Amino acid sequence: QVQVVESGGGLVQAGGSLRLSCTVSGLTFDDYPMAWFRQAPGKEREGVSCISRRRFSTFYADSVKGRFTISGDNTKNTLYLQMNSLTPEDTAMYYCAAGPRFGVGNWCFGSPATSTYWGQGTRVTVSS
Fold first, then answer.
1. CA atoms of 5 and 118, how far apart (whole Å)
2. Beta-bridge partners for 123
3. Burial 19-38, CB ≥16 within 10 A → b, else e
4. Residue 32 to residues 23, 78, 120, 128: CA-CA distances in angstroms?
5. CA distance 112 to 84
6. Which one, 69, 83, 101, 124, has the greatest CB density within 10 A?
7. Which tens digit of pLDDT belongs to each residue from 2-45?
8. H or E element: which one contains 54?
Protein backbone atom coordinates (compact mmCIF):
# COMPACT_ATOMS: atom_id res chain seq x y z
CA GLN A 1 0.00 0.00 0.00
CA VAL A 2 1.40 3.36 -1.05
CA GLN A 3 1.52 6.09 1.56
CA VAL A 4 2.41 9.73 0.94
CA VAL A 5 2.73 11.82 4.08
CA GLU A 6 3.47 15.54 4.14
CA SER A 7 4.70 17.51 7.12
CA GLY A 8 6.20 20.87 7.95
CA GLY A 9 3.32 23.23 7.34
CA GLY A 10 2.31 25.90 9.80
CA LEU A 11 1.79 29.58 10.46
CA VAL A 12 4.56 31.98 9.52
CA GLN A 13 4.88 35.72 9.09
CA ALA A 14 5.43 37.27 5.70
CA GLY A 15 9.09 37.12 4.78
CA GLY A 16 9.61 33.95 6.77
CA SER A 17 10.53 30.44 5.71
CA LEU A 18 9.17 26.92 6.00
CA ARG A 19 10.44 23.55 4.89
CA LEU A 20 7.93 20.96 3.82
CA SER A 21 8.75 17.26 3.78
CA CYS A 22 7.01 14.36 2.07
CA THR A 23 7.81 10.78 2.93
CA VAL A 24 6.70 8.06 0.55
CA SER A 25 6.43 4.34 1.19
CA GLY A 26 5.09 1.36 -0.69
CA LEU A 27 6.66 2.12 -4.05
CA THR A 28 10.06 2.37 -5.70
CA PHE A 29 10.60 6.06 -5.04
CA ASP A 30 13.09 6.74 -7.83
CA ASP A 31 10.71 5.27 -10.41
CA TYR A 32 8.54 8.37 -10.00
CA PRO A 33 9.01 12.06 -10.71
CA MET A 34 7.52 14.02 -7.83
CA ALA A 35 5.88 17.38 -7.30
CA TRP A 36 4.35 19.83 -4.93
CA PHE A 37 0.94 21.29 -5.66
CA ARG A 38 -1.07 23.81 -3.69
CA GLN A 39 -4.65 24.90 -3.42
CA ALA A 40 -5.65 28.20 -1.91
CA PRO A 41 -9.18 28.80 -0.61
CA GLY A 42 -11.54 29.40 -3.51
CA LYS A 43 -8.90 28.65 -6.12
CA GLU A 44 -7.99 25.71 -8.28
CA ARG A 45 -5.11 23.47 -7.43
CA GLU A 46 -1.89 24.50 -9.12
CA GLY A 47 1.51 23.00 -9.67
CA VAL A 48 4.21 24.64 -7.59
CA SER A 49 7.30 22.65 -8.42
CA CYS A 50 8.27 19.25 -9.78
CA ILE A 51 11.42 17.20 -9.90
CA SER A 52 12.77 14.40 -12.05
CA ARG A 53 13.19 10.81 -10.95
CA ARG A 54 16.93 11.16 -10.27
CA ARG A 55 16.15 14.48 -8.51
CA PHE A 56 18.57 16.39 -10.73
CA SER A 57 16.11 18.39 -12.86
CA THR A 58 13.73 20.82 -11.19
CA PHE A 59 10.88 22.97 -12.46
CA TYR A 60 9.02 25.86 -10.85
CA ALA A 61 5.94 27.96 -11.29
CA ASP A 62 6.82 31.56 -12.09
CA SER A 63 5.16 32.68 -8.87
CA VAL A 64 7.67 30.79 -6.70
CA LYS A 65 10.80 30.84 -8.84
CA GLY A 66 13.76 32.15 -6.88
CA ARG A 67 11.99 31.69 -3.55
CA PHE A 68 11.20 27.96 -3.37
CA THR A 69 13.56 25.04 -3.80
CA ILE A 70 12.46 21.48 -4.41
CA SER A 71 14.77 18.60 -3.62
CA GLY A 72 14.59 14.90 -2.96
CA ASP A 73 16.59 12.20 -1.25
CA ASN A 74 16.06 8.85 -2.94
CA THR A 75 17.90 7.07 -0.12
CA LYS A 76 15.26 8.32 2.32
CA ASN A 77 12.24 8.22 0.00
CA THR A 78 11.65 11.85 0.90
CA LEU A 79 10.79 14.97 -1.04
CA TYR A 80 11.34 18.49 0.27
CA LEU A 81 10.18 22.00 -0.49
CA GLN A 82 12.17 24.84 1.02
CA MET A 83 10.05 27.98 0.94
CA ASN A 84 11.67 31.35 1.57
CA SER A 85 10.42 34.93 1.42
CA LEU A 86 6.87 33.75 1.95
CA THR A 87 3.99 36.09 1.21
CA PRO A 88 0.29 35.88 2.12
CA GLU A 89 -0.33 34.78 -1.48
CA ASP A 90 1.50 31.54 -0.64
CA THR A 91 -1.18 30.63 1.89
CA ALA A 92 -2.65 27.29 0.77
CA MET A 93 -2.88 23.59 1.40
CA TYR A 94 0.26 22.04 -0.03
CA TYR A 95 0.15 18.56 -1.48
CA CYS A 96 2.89 16.14 -2.39
CA ALA A 97 2.22 13.98 -5.43
CA ALA A 98 3.91 11.28 -7.43
CA GLY A 99 3.84 11.56 -11.17
CA PRO A 100 3.52 8.79 -13.72
CA ARG A 101 5.91 5.94 -13.24
CA PHE A 102 9.04 6.55 -15.34
CA GLY A 103 7.55 9.91 -16.32
CA VAL A 104 9.28 13.17 -17.21
CA GLY A 105 10.38 15.65 -14.61
CA ASN A 106 8.13 18.57 -15.57
CA TRP A 107 4.96 16.48 -15.47
CA CYS A 108 3.29 18.68 -12.90
CA PHE A 109 3.00 21.50 -15.43
CA GLY A 110 2.64 19.59 -18.67
CA SER A 111 0.38 16.78 -17.57
CA PRO A 112 -0.80 17.07 -13.96
CA ALA A 113 -3.66 14.68 -14.61
CA THR A 114 -1.11 11.87 -14.87
CA SER A 115 -0.46 11.98 -11.13
CA THR A 116 -0.52 8.60 -9.44
CA TYR A 117 -0.41 9.09 -5.69
CA TRP A 118 -1.28 12.01 -3.42
CA GLY A 119 -0.78 12.93 0.18
CA GLN A 120 -3.40 14.45 2.43
CA GLY A 121 -1.75 17.85 2.41
CA THR A 122 -0.15 20.18 4.91
CA ARG A 123 -1.48 23.67 5.52
CA VAL A 124 0.69 26.74 5.11
CA THR A 125 -0.60 30.07 6.39
CA VAL A 126 1.38 33.25 5.87
CA SER A 127 0.30 36.27 7.89
CA SER A 128 0.93 39.83 6.75
1. 9
2. 93
3. ebbbbbeebebeebbbbbbb
4. 13, 12, 18, 36
5. 25
6. 83
7. 999 999 999 999 999 999 999 999 999 999 999 999 999 999 99
8. none
